[in-house]
């Protein structure tokens, strides 16, 4: 049985359990006074909007150069993929694998995973609640690694600054990539996971 079926609402601010008042259009939390909703208002719409924006910015994030490495007055900008290829070329396979997973696989999986989760809920696709919850928790777990590339670039820009001898500059691709990461994180936060359980009536997994 769901909490909403028992007439219980949870406050999004302080997590206090409140008895649902059927006669009130707007209910406030008995502890902190915040508005209490059975489900986050417009959760799916906001999540779709953030996801579409992130998907659009994902193109320049991979096409535009993410940083430029200058050595002895010469340098060439590099994208995420070209940076991975350069690392492989120099034999740095572990670092290349980390950059590829954190900068390409993780954002791609988050975009596709959140999109599939939203689509399965809205279209009532044959995914069990357990599968949806597993997907949602995995998306939340890998989200913390999405900023790895941006942290590395920020550290390199701050540390490697020796004038014309050697320097590293961040490019527009880094801004686009950071925007994608932030937007996907906001999309995961704005999604109300309780909507998963609202779609279990047609699922085979009811335990």
From TrEMBL:
Would the keyword Transferase turn up in this protein's UniProt record? no
Where in the cell is the protein located?
A: Cell inner membrane
Entry's Gene Ontology cellular component terms = plasma membrane
Transmembrane segments in this chain: where? 48-67, 87-120, 141-160, 172-191
Keywords carried by this UniProt record = Cell inner membrane, Cell membrane, Membrane, Transmembrane, Transmembrane helix
Superkingdom of source: Bacteria
Q: Where does it mainly reside?
A: membrane
An example Pfam family from this entry, by short name, is PqiA
| Protein name in the entry | Paraquat-inducible membrane protein A
Q: Which organism is it from?
A: Pseudomonas arsenicoxydans
């Amino acid at each position: 049985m769901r909490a909403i079926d028992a007439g219980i609402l949870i406050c999004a601010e302080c997590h206090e359990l409140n008895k649902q008042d059927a006669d009130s259009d707007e209910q406030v939390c008995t502890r902190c006074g915040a508005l209490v909703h059975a489900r986050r208002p417009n959760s799916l719409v906001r999540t779709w909007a953030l996801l579409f924006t992130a998907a659009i910015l994902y193109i320049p994030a991979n096409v535009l150069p993410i940083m430029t490495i200058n050595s002895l007055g010469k340098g060439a900008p590099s994208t995420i993929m070209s940076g991975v290829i350069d690392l492989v070329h120099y034999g740095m396979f572990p670092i290349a694998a980390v950059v590829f997973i954190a900068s390409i696989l993780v954002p791609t999986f988050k975009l596709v995973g959140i999109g599939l989760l939203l689509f399965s809920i809205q279209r009532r696709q044959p995914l069990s609640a357990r599968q949806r919850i597993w997907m949602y928790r995995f998306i939340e777990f890998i989200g913390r690694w999405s900023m790895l590339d941006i942290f590395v670039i920020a550290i390199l820009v701050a540390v490697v600054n020796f004038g014309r001898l050697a320097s590293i500059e961040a490019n527009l691709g880094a801004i686009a990539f950071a925007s994608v990461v932030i937007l996907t994180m906001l999309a995961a936060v704005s999604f109300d996971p309780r909507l998963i359980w609202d779609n279990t009536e047609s699922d085979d997994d009811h335990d």
